[in-house]
Amino acid sequence: xxxxxxxxxxxxxxxxxxxxxxxxxxxxxxxxxxxxxxxxxxxxxxxxxxxxxxxxxxxxxxxxxxxxxxxxxxxxxxxxxxxxxxxxxxxxxxxxxxxxxxxxxxxxxxxxxxxxxxxxxxxxxxxxxxxxxxxxxxxxxxxxxxxxxxxxxxxxxxxxxxxxxxxxxxxxxxxxxxxxxxxxxxxxxxxxxxxxxxxxxxxxxxxxxxxxxxxxxxxxxxxxxxxxxxxxxxxxxxxxxxxxxxxxxxxxxxxxxxxxxxxxxxxxxxxxxxxxxxxxxxxxxxxxxxxxxxxxxxxxxxxxxxxxxxxxxxxxxxxxxxxxxxxxxxxxxxxxxxxxxxxxxxxxxxxxxxxxxxxxxxxxxxxxxxxxxxxxxxxxxxxxxxxxxxxxxxxxxxxxxxxxxxxxxxxxxxxxxxxxxxxxxxxxxxxxxxxxx
Length: 437
Hints:
By secondary structure, this protein is of the alpha+beta class. Helices cover 56% and strands 13% of the residues.
C-alpha cells in the first residue's frame, strides 16, 4: 500500500484505522520491553563470568548478546513512542480532520512556510507510519550486521587458537591458517568499504574480478545470505539510503554519550582495585553475595575479620596451568585437552591419570604461591574449591592468632617466568581489619 497521502486507498485505510484500536500492539511491545529488561542482568552476569574465566568464546557470544539487547531495546522503545504518537495523530485526525490554515489566520509568510514544510496532516501521519514500519527492519538489520561481525571475530579467534597450538603441524600453520587469516583480514576490509559506500565495489567493473570471490565467501561467513533481500530492498529507495548514513553515527554518538561520566576526585574512582589503601568489593565474599560481582584474583570473607582463622580463596586463572607445567614438566599431558570440547568429553585427561597426578599438581601450586599478612609469610595448604559465584580456585586458611588488632594487608604472590628467569610477582593486595571477639 502506498504511503502517499493523496492516494484514495491510503485515505480509506486511515478512515478504517480511526475505528480500530492499536492498544494491543503497544501492550505487546510493552511486554517485550519488560522481558528484555528481565534478561539483561543474566546476560551481563554470564559475560562477566566468561571474562573472569578467560573463556574467549563465551565472552564473544555474550558481548554480542549484550550489544544486541541494547539495539533491540532502544529501537523498540523508540518504536513504542512513535507508534503512540501515530495513534494519537490518528485520533486527532478523527476529531479535527486535516489542518485548516484558513482558520489559523497566520500572516502570508508564515502560512507559505507552514504549507511547504508541514503540509497536510495526512502527510504527517504517513511519515509517522513510514518511520514506525522501517524501525523494525533497521533493528534486525543492525543485529544481523553485529552477528556477522561476531562470526568474523570468532573465525579470527579460532584460527589464532590453532596457530598458537604447539602441536599444529608447520604445513597446516604456513599453508592453511596464515593464508586464511590474511584472506579474512583483507576480505573484512573490503566488505566494510562496500558496506560504508553502499555497494560501491559492486558497481565498478574493474573491482568485480577481485571482490566477487570475497563477496561470495563472506555472504556465508557473515550470514548475509539470510538477510540480503532486506538490505537491497532498504537501499533501493532514497529514504533508505539517507537513513543508512545516519543509523551507525547515531548509535556511535549514543555510545559516546552513555560512556560519558563525571569525576569527583583526581585520585579516587569507583573501580579501583584492592591494594594497601583501597578495598574493592570484588575481594570480599560478603559484599559479593546476591550481586553480579565475581572474585577478582582472590578474596577473603569480609573487610572486618572477627576470628583468628582467615580463609583465603585464590581464583584459578587461565595462565596458571602453563606455569605449573613449566615448574613441573611431568604434569604436562601428552595431549592438551584445554579449549573447546564436545558433550562427549569434559576437556580433561582420563579420571585415573588425573587423580594420580592431582596431588603433585596441588603441591606445585603450593610451592608457587606465598601469602603474607603484612610482612609475615605463610606457606599455603590448598584445597580445590568452587566459590558461591561458581568460580574454580583453591582455598587455604591463615592463622591470625598472634596478630594485633587493627588494620592489616593480605599480600598474595606467585612465582612466575620472565623469559627464562623465575621471579615473584604480586597477584593482589587485600586490606582488612582484624578485631577478634
